[in-house]
Design goal:
With about 120 residues, this protein is mainly alpha-helical. The protein has one domain. It contains four helices and no strands. The longest helix has 24 residues. It comes from Aeromicrobium fastidiosum. It holds the Pfam family DUF2568. InterPro entries: DUF2568. This is DUF2568 domain-containing protein.
Length: about 120
């Protein structure tokens, strides 16, 4: 199979990737806020891996089960808001809220580019 030509990625795509990484980091930190010690890190890693699994299954560009655009955007925003709720429960209220607003805005802008 010949190699595919890479798609043009812009600065908004880079910010979107940073939002995805920030979601994982925030979930790990929020889990650590639930319980002290290694159990908190384990909860955080579990939450992050669940989010990564959801993302890889239904939102990743290379996934065969990728959702169509309006549904995918709603699922992404729901995942961002859920991350904000976990952050608030773990003691990271403001980082969670800022993350949810910024990530939702970035992915709304990306969805408008894809239309």
């Amino acid at each position: 199979m010949p190699p595919q030509k890479p798609t043009d990625l812009g600065p908004l795509d880079a910010v979107a990737f940073l939002c995805e990484v920030a979601m994982v980091v925030l979930l790990v930190l929020a889990g650590h806020g639930f319980v002290d010690g290694w159990r908190g890190w384990a909860v955080g890693v579990f939450l992050a891996m669940v989010a990564v699994g959801i993302w890889a299954q239904w939102m990743a560009t290379t996934s065969p089960r990728r959702l169509d655009l309006p549904t995918r955007l709603v699922a992404q925003i729901m995942l961002f808001v859920t991350t904000a709720f976990y952050c608030a429960a773990g003691g990271l209220l403001w980082p969670g809220l800022v993350f949810a607003v910024v990530a939702s805005g970035v992915f709304v802008a990306l969805s408008r580019q894809d239309v």
